[in-house]
Amino acid sequence: MKILVINGPNLNLLGEREPNIYGSDTLSSINEELREKAEKMGYETEFFQSNSEGALIDALHNSRLDCAGVILNAGAYTHYSYAIRDAIAAIKIPVVEVHLSNVNSRDEFRKTSVIAPVCAGSIAGFGKYSYHIALDALDYRFSEGRK
Questions:
Q1: DSSP readout, 50-61?
Q2: Residue 104 CB: number of other CB atoms within 10 A?
Q3: Which one, of 101, 92, 103, 100, lies nearest residue 70 by Cα?
Q4: For residue 98, how far is the Cα from the chain centroid?
Q5: Residue 112 has what pLDDT?
Q6: Among residues 61, 117, 122, 140, which is most buried (max CB within 10 A)?
Q7: Domain boundaries, position 54
Q8: What is the CATH number of the domain that holds 75?
Q9: Dist. CA 19–CA 23, nearest whole Å
Q10: Are 105 and 139 in contact, with CB atoms under 8 Å apart?
């Protein structure tokens, strides 16, 4: 089974962008750790990053064809992109919303997620381990579905 990991705007700058909030790990190092973990769990991973809303929507649409689930850090789009929300609702595979920082302890606008209602779940505040927790959550969901 394949899991797509999608990262949105500005996440390509991890490691240099506000390390006091987002940590010092780069996106490629986070992806590599997650790939290794997923492989040990028996999953194939694919990684995608874009600063463009349309490209993220296209990636979500395409995931329905060959992926069992998606881990999505939509970045700032989380808070206002109804187009991404609609794409998640349309694909009918589980999507786990992920954030490195605890969005609820930051700016007021970050406390609202328009995508959360159509996601399988949301994980925030654990740095790069938010992605690992999301992978564990998808694995749990898949194993529950096999019973």
A1: -S-HHHHHHHHH
A2: 11
A3: 92
A4: 5
A5: 79
A6: 122
A7: 2-145
A8: 3.40.50.9100
A9: 4
A10: no
Give the residue numbers marked as catalytic: 22, 99
Residue carrying structure tokens 């898949």? 142
Cα four-point dihedral sign 113, 119, 125, 129:
negative
Token output for 139: 């694995």
The tens place of each residue's pLDDT in the chain, 147 residues long, gives 999 999 999 999 988 876 676 677 999 999 999 999 999 999 999 999 999 999 999 999 999 999 999 999 999 999 999 999 999 999 999 999 999 987 765 666 666 799 999 999 999 999 999 999 999 999 999 998 654
DSSP class per residue in 81-121? -HHHHHHHHHH-S-EEEEESS-GGGS-GGGG--SSGGGSSE
For residues 74 and 8, is the Cβ–Cβ distance under 8 A? yes
- Which residue carries 């490209």 as its tokens? 55
CB-based contacts of 71: which residues, under 8 Å, 6+ apart?
A: 3, 4, 5, 6, 34, 95, 96, 98, 131, 134, 135, 138
Q: pLDDT value at position 145?
A: 64
Helices and strands per DSSP (H, E), number in the chain: 5, 5
